[in-house]
Amino acid sequence: MAGVVLRVRLVSGDSMDVIYDEAGTKSQAEAIDHVAAVLSSDTGVIRCRHGDRLLLLYARGVATVEVAPRGAVL
Fold first, then answer.
1. Which tens digit of pLDDT belongs to each residue from 13-22?
2. Positive or negative CA dihedral for 69, 11, 55, 38?
3. What is the reported pTM?
4. Among 2.60.420, 3.40.1350, 2.60.40, 2.30.30, what is the CATH number of 2-66?
5. Which residues are CB-contacts of 16 (< 8 A; sequence separation ≥ 6)?
């Protein structure tokens, strides 16, 4: 299972760093491709973690997603 840290900017202008872990992906590149595919649709939803909390990230509320080689600082 590959995990990736995403910096998400919401439509409201706020941003947050989340961890995305998908059981079906084996590499970070696959995880990033999966996030992009899901969030490209209006009805897309991904499960993420923010600290010790589980959250659902809806595509409609996301303005941008940033992925850095080192990842964001949590």
1. 999 999 988 7
2. negative
3. 0.77
4. 2.30.30
5. 7, 8, 10, 50
